[in-house]
Amino acid sequence: MRSALRLAAVVIAVAGVVDPALVRRTRAPLAVEFRLPPPSDPHHAPALALRTELSRQLTQDAVIDGSLTPRAVIAIGNADVSGQGSARIFALPVTVPGPATTILAFSAPGRTMAGQRVDLAVSIFGSGVVGRTSSLALEVRGSVLHTIQHTWRADGERFDGRLTFVPPTAGVYRARVRVSTDGARAPSVADALIAASDAPVRVLAYEPRPSWPVTFVRRALESDRLFQVASTARTSRPSATVSGETPKSLSELDVDRSDVLIVGALDDLRPRDLEALDRFVNRRGGTLLLLPDKQLPAAVQQYFDFPPFDEVLVEKPLRVQAGVFSLQASELLLASTEQSVASVRQAGRTRAAIVAIDRGEGRIIVSGVLDAWRYRATSADAFASFWRALVVDAGLAAPAKLQVSVDRSILRPGEEVNVSITLRATELDRRGDQWVMPAVSASLVDAAGNAQSVRLWPGARVGVLTGRSKVVGHGAHALTASIKGASTTIPVLTEEDVVQAVADGSAANAYAALATGGAVATDPAEVARLVKDIETGFEERTSHPMRSWWWMLPFIGLLCVEWTIRRRSGLK
Amino acid sequence: MRPERAVFRVSSVSRLILAVRRRLWWRQFGVCALLGASVFLLLTASGTLFLAGIARAAIAIAAGGMAVAALRGSATPAGAAAAIERFEPSCRNVVITAEELHRHPERASARVIERVTRAASEASREVRAQSVVPAHHIAVPFGATVVMAALASPYVSTPAKSAIAAITRAVVPAPAAAPLITVVVESPAYTHRPAITLTNPDRIEALEGSRIRFELPPDWRVRFGNHEVTPPVLARASGYFVVEPQSHTSASMLIPLTVQPDRSPSVRITAPAKDLLLADGSATIRLSASASDDLGLDTLEIRYTRVSGSGEHFEFVEGTLPAAVRRRSTSEWQADATLALPALRLGPGDSVVYRAVARDERPGRAGTATSETYFIEIAGPWQIALAGVDMPPELDRYAMSQQMIVVKLERLRKRESTMTRETLREEAASLAAEQRTVRGNFIFLLGGHVEDEEEEAAQSHEIQEGRLENTARRDINAAISQMTRVEQSITALDIGAALPPARAAVEALQRAFGHSRYLLRSLAVRARLDPSRRLTGDLADATGWRRTVGEPPPPPQAAIRSLLAVLLESVQLSRAGQHPDARRLLEIGELALKIDPAAAVWQGISREITAARDTATLERVSALVSGQLVAGTLPRTGITASESPLERAFRTERR
C-alpha cells in the first residue's frame, strides 16, 4: 500500500517535470460583441433593451462580450463600429414608433464671438406626424430664448431649421433644442455647445494709393469693437498714412497678425505684393478682400485666375442684393459665376457683383460694387453692416496655426471623444518628398486642473492628427493642442443629462455590414439566427494539464497518507 | 383589579371605545402631519425667509408638534365616548357615563357600574368604530400630507411649483406693498393743458418743459437715473425715475418718463415758392405761406430783407409784410401778403430775400421756425431777365449770407452789454447755427471738408496734379476755416472774438469771387495742369503720418447684452431656489430702462422684471430681451458655411 502511494506521488512529480501537452480538436466558440450608441444618444435605452433580448437568444450558442476576438459584431442603432478587424458586422437599426420626431443634427458654429449672432442648425425627422405641428424651442442655460414651428406635410419628412441666439458675453453656453409635437409621447431633445470668444477680428487694410472703397469699408470696421483694424494707405512712394501695427509693405506681411486682408487700388500692386497676398490666402488660409475702384488689372486677373469681370456703368444705381443686405452701385464689375456673395439683376439676368473664390486654404472676395460707398447713406446703414458681417465671417473662418475639433463637444461623463488636430499649411515643412511636422501634444484638463494626455495618431492626410480620449468628471474641460510657439484650446463640457442628436449612422453601418459579410436586419430574431449560422469551424486546443496547481493537492495527500500509514506501523 | 373594572373591560362598549380611540388617534396624527407639511410647503413655495431646507423642516415639525399638543384631548377614552355619543345620540350619554365610571369607580357602587356598563353595551351594540370614525377621515389627511410633501420636494415639476407659488401669492399678501405715490404732471403754461395727477403710475408721459411733482411718504426720495433730484423736476429728456425709501429699496418703484418734444412749427412758402429774376422793380408779387404746429401757433408773418449794392458792399434793410392770416385751426394757419417792389425802390442788381416765420406759443425763441428763403432779384445790366423764371442759385447768395452774419454779429456786439446771459446764449446759438449753415453750404459745394480724412486722401492726387493751386478754391478753403473759428467763438459767447474771422471769411470769399465768379461750377472739370510746376518739389520731403484711431463707441447692443447675461444668471439662480429679491429685480429693471427709457418695449420689459415673482416670468423676459438682441445684431453672410475639404477641392477643380 505504501509503495503504491509513493509510486503515485512519484508519477505526479515526474509528470509535472515532463509537462505533457494534450491536443484536442473542438468546435470554435462563437464570440459576439455588442456595440451600442453612447448613453447620451436617445436610442441608447431602446438599444439596451434590444441587446438584452438578443443576449437571451444567443446565450446558449455564443460567448457574449467576452475576451475572445469576436466573430460577429452586432451594432445596434447608431453604434460606432470602427476599430473592428475581421468580424462580421450585423446592423440592427432602432426604430422609434410614431408619432415621433427624431433630432438628426443640432450644431453650433465652431467659432463665435460675443455679441454676434449664432445660428444653430437643427434637423429633425418626423415619422407618423403628418398634419401635426412641431415646436422647436431653443433653451440656453435653461431659458427658452427662441421658438420656431413646423407643420409636417409628409411622412418621413426631414425639416432643417435654424435657431438663433446671441451670446451676451464671452464664455461657454449649453444650448438645448426641445422638439414638442402634438400628440407625440415625449419631446425630443438634443444638446450643443456654444463657445463665444471676445477676441476681435484682426484686419489689415492696405492701399497702395488712397482709394474710396477701402476708406469707407475701413471706417465701417474701425467704428465697431468687433474689429481690430490696422491700415496702410500709401499717399506717395515714400509716405504713407498708417494706423495700428502695420507692415511697411505687403512683402513684409506677417500672415499671423491678420485674419482678413483688405486691399484696394489694385492697379498699383506690384508682383511682390501679389505673391504676399497669395501666401496669405493659399497657405495661411486667410480671407483677402479686394476692393477695386475700376476694372481689375490684367496682372491681378491672371495671377489669381479670376473669372472675367465685365465693367458696367449705369446712370441710376442698381440694387445689389447680398443676403438680407441691399446695397446700391452705379459702377459695377459683374461676373457670371456661382460663387456669388451678392448679385444684381442687370439686362434681364442675374450676375454676381461680389464674388468669393476659394484659393488654397483661404478665399478671395472680389467686390464688384465699385462705387457702393457713394450710396452708403441711402439704406439704413446697410453698406457698413454688410461689410462688417462679411468681414466677421471671414475672420472667424481664418484658421489658427493649430485647429482642434471634436466630434462632440458636449457629452456625458465617461464618454469618449474623438479629437482631430489639423496643422495649418504654414506649419508644415516640405523636405524633398517628405512633409515634416512639428511635435504636437494634446491634453484634456478638467475643471479641477487635472490634465490627461491625449495620444495622437497620424490622420488620413498630411497635417492631420487624430486621437480618442475618455472624458471623466463633470463640468467644463479644456482640450489643448500645442506646438512650439502656439497652442489652441477648445472647451468640452460634460453633464449627466446631456442628450446628443441621433447621428444618422445607419448608412455607414449598413456599408460596414455589407463589406464584412454581415447583414442589416430590423428583427432581433433574424439577427440572432444569422449570428448563430456563422460557421466558426474547429480548432485544436493544446493544454498542459500538469501545469495546474491542483495537482499539489493529490501529491501532498498521497504523501501524507503514506506517512500516516507508516507511523501507525511504527516506522519512522 | 376591582370587579367593576373587570366587568367594563370585558364589555363590548369597552372594546368599542378602544377601537374608536385608536382611530381618533390616527386621524389626529394625520391632521397634525398635514399641518406640518402645509407649513413646509408654504415656506418653500413662497420663497421667503431665506431659510434652508432643514430649517423649514424644523419649523414644520414644530408646527405639527404644537398641533398634537393642541389636539391631544380628542383621542382620549372620554373623547372616544363623546364621539360615539355624537354618532349615536340614542345612547343618551350612557356610553359617556360608563366610560367615566370606569375611570372613577369610586363614584358609584359596583352594581350601578355593572348596570350602566351593560346598558352602554346594549345601547352601542349596533355601533361600529368604522362608522364613528370612517376610514376616509384617516386616509384623507395622510393622503394630503403625502401630496404636500411631494409638492414641496425639489423633484416636483416646475409648473406645479409655479401654480403653488401663484396660490401662495394669492393667499399671502406681498410682504412689502408699495406705498401710495402721487405724481402731478403740469404741462407748460402756454399749452393751457390741465395738470394730470397719477397715482402709483407705471409710466409718465410728459410734454417737454413740463414740471413733475411727487407726493411721497416721509423719508422717501426720488432719483432720475443715477442722479438724485429734488422735485419738482423739469421734463427735458426721457429717462426714468426711481422712487425709493431712504433706508432700503425693498418697495422701490421704477417709473419710466417719456418726454414728448414740442416740435417747432412747420412753415413753407406756397406761392410763388421759387426764386425770381425780374427785369425791373415795378412788379407786385403775391406771397402765400402756410404753417402748422403740433400744439398751436402764436404768430405767422412774412419777413423780407432788401439787399442793395454789389460785391461785399451790400446794404440790408429788413422788414415785415402786412399779411392776412387765416386760421383753419389753432395749429394750422395760412398767411397771404403782397410784396410791392416799387415801394422797396429796387435798382438793377438789387434783390429781396423773403421768408415766412412762424412761432408757437413757447416763450423765447425756441418755438420759432423759418421757411426756406426765396430771392427776387432785379436783373443787372449784364443779365437777361425773363419774368417768372427761376433764378439759379448764385454764389453771391452765400457771400451775402456771410456778410449778413457779420452784420448780425455787429448788432449783437452792440447789444451784448444790455442782455442777460441767458438771452445772449440763445441769440448766439441761433447765430452759430446760421454760421454753420453757411459753412455747410460751401463745404457741400466743395464736396466735403478739406480737413476730413477721406477728402484729404482723395485730394492727394489733386495735390500732385496742382489742382489746389487754383487760388480761388484755396480762398474758399480759407473762408471755411475762418467760419469755423467764428462758430467756435460764438459758441463760447465771445462775440468780439468772432467778428475778425467773420470779416476775414467775407474777404476770402470776395477774393475767390474776384478770381472766378463761377469757380465752383468748374470744380467738376478736371483741373488743367501747370507743366511748369511739375516735378519741381523733392519727393523725399514727403513723409507719412500715423493716424490715431479712437476707441469705437460701445455698440448699441452692449446694454442689451449685459441685461441678457444678468437675466440668464437670474433664471439659473431662481431655478435653484434663489429667486432674486425685490431689490435685485429693481436693479435689473433699471438696466432694462437704461437701454431706452422712452421705448415702450423696454418699459414693458422693465415692468415685467420688477414684478417677476417666479422663474417663468424671468424666462419669458429673457426670451424677449434675446429677441431684441438678435434683431439688432449682424446676420451671418454664409460665406463660411462649413463644407468638407472634398467639396471645396471639387469646386476649385471645376473652376
Mean pLDDT of chain B: 78
Rounded Rg of chain B? 46 Å
Shape of chain A: elongated
The total count of strands of chain A amounts to 36
| Rg over C-alpha atoms of chain A, rounded to the nearest angstrom | 34 Å
In spatial order, strands of the major sheet of chain A run 16-15-14-17-18-23-22-21-19-20
The level of helicity of chain A is 10-25%
| Multimer state | heterodimer
Strand proportion of chain B, as a percent range, falls in 15-25%
Short overview:
The complex is a heterodimer of chains A (572) and B (655). Chain A is α/β, with parallel strands linked by helices and 572 residues long. In chain A, 20% of the residues lie in helices and 40% in strands.
Polypeptide structure, described:
Chain A contains nine helices and 36 strands. Chain A is α/β, with parallel strands linked by helices and 572 residues long. Chain A has a ten-stranded mixed beta sheet with strand order 16-15-14-17-18-23-22-21-19-20, sandwiched between helices. A five-stranded parallel beta sheet of chain A has the order 3-2-4-5-35. In chain A, a hairpin with a 2-residue loop joins strand 27 (429-431) and strand 28 (434-436). In chain A, 41% of the residues are buried. With 655 residues, chain B is α+β, with helices and mostly antiparallel strands. In chain B, the strands form four sheets. In chain B, strands 11, 13, 14, 17, 18 and 19 form a six-stranded mixed beta sheet that branches. A five-stranded mixed beta sheet of chain B has the order 3-9-8-5-6, with helices on one face. Chain B has a four-stranded antiparallel beta sheet with strand order 2-1-4-7, with no helix packed on it. In chain B, a hairpin with a 7-residue loop joins strand 8 and strand 9. In chain B, helix 16 (557-575) packs antiparallel against helix 19 (615-631) and helix 17 (582-595) runs antiparallel to helix 18. Chain B is elongated, with a radius of gyration of 46 Å. Chains A and B meet through strand 10, helix 3, strand 15, strand 16 and strand 22 of A and helix 13, strand 20, helix 16, helix 19 and helix 20 of B.
